[in-house]
Amino acid sequence: MLPETVVSYLNEHSEQFVAELQRLCRQPSVSAQNLGLGECAELVKTMMEQVGLHTQLFELEAGPPVVYGELQGRSDKTLIFYDHYDVQPPEPLELWQSDPWAAEIRDGVLYARGASDNKSNIVSRLKAMEAWLQTAGQLPCSVKWVIEGEEETGSRHLGQFIRAERARLAGDGCIWEFGGLDDDDIPAIVLGLKGMLYVELTARGPAADLHSARAAIVENPAWRLVQALSTIRDAAGHVTIEGWYERVRDFTPAELAALEAVPLPEEELKRELGIAHFLNDMHGPELKKALAGGPTANIAGIWGGYRGEGHKTVLPASAKAKLDFRLVPDQEPEELAERLRSHLQRHGFGDLELQIQAASPAARTPLEAEIVRMAQETARQVFAKEPIVQVSSAGSGPMALFSDLLKLPTVAIGCNHSGSQTHSPNENQRLDVFLAGTQWMAAMLERFGQAG
Length: 452
Ligand SMILES: [Zn+2]
Hints:
The chain is an alpha+beta fold and 452 residues long. Helix content is 34%, strand content 21%. The protein folds into two domains: 4-193 and 362-449, Aminopeptidase (3-Layer(aba) Sandwich), CATH 3.40.630; 195-248 and 294-360, Alpha-Beta Plaits (2-Layer Sandwich). It is built from 13 helices and 20 strands. The structure holds zinc ion. The site of zinc ion has 5 residues, from loops. Zinc ion binds next to loops.
């Protein structure tokens, strides 16, 4: 249980915590636009130092620096935190009710780009540490903290940093950058993320766009492209590339039970998404399994030829498509990229250009890991509710660098709430959840320090 002194500290300083969150949200840090990243890294470093952490900025080969902080605690058990200080672009600005960098508070909710993703979690974690340091003089466990600046653009240089600093980053568990309450304000503990293979396919035809009368004698690259794409996935959503599912790890019986226990309001979700039925008419356990553990092949964009008003009879010189493949444990992105390449060759599309733009594996921490139990116990303590455990998010991120490369059992828990509009206009952070999440972090630090 959290000592009364820690709880009082958290309650008495809540206004200051909110002010600190505003301070961080008012510093723009858009990685896609290279806006304010250096300044934000400095600010995060300063905020860490003010709390008492030892910090360092790591410049990478390219891209913004990694902010690193650490502090020895009462116990040698070491908890690693992963966060990011960059945010998505705020556009379209006209849809915001207040300036995205103003961090305005209305009815107990703070509105800013990055408020929820991921600056509230950074400040929440920092303030949990501050509460321990100010009341007990030290942290209950040791802490190491990696805060990168290009998560929103694909964490392109994080792997390089993790590999180079592997020895420094030894630890016993990891807390991920997001997490918090679900739609019904029930605390949720997320144990995994899907991986990602992102490619661009280009079909090339004649040297220049042609009069489409030439279609009688010249092949159209847009047709070549859609024919190639149609060999990649069937109408049921199944990836039809040879061997694609070979390494897919089955859910354990315990994971299946956990999936079953998490509610999925299907009708509500269909309404929200504006669809009449789910892919392949899935429902029930099948739907949950697909979300948490189903590989996907998605066309993220496809273009070529004339796209303006009216008609223009043209045979385009080239056509392109961007595809994202979500991967699951234990699929290997490099191997799958090769499988895609040879699949295209075998089907007569070896002339299409295949450019790999991102490749990262999935991550999934076992349900039996001790850190999962700790997250459950502390959630019960703080929220007086039984938390749900999500075997995997349907989203992606560089979690495997921590869970697999650094061998750290990893959970995503934090101070987010549903309705936070991350990546959208009017992104926001409920302040009650921000403060409750801070308590959750303080409790996790304590519980981790007591680990056997
Ligand atoms: Zn994000």
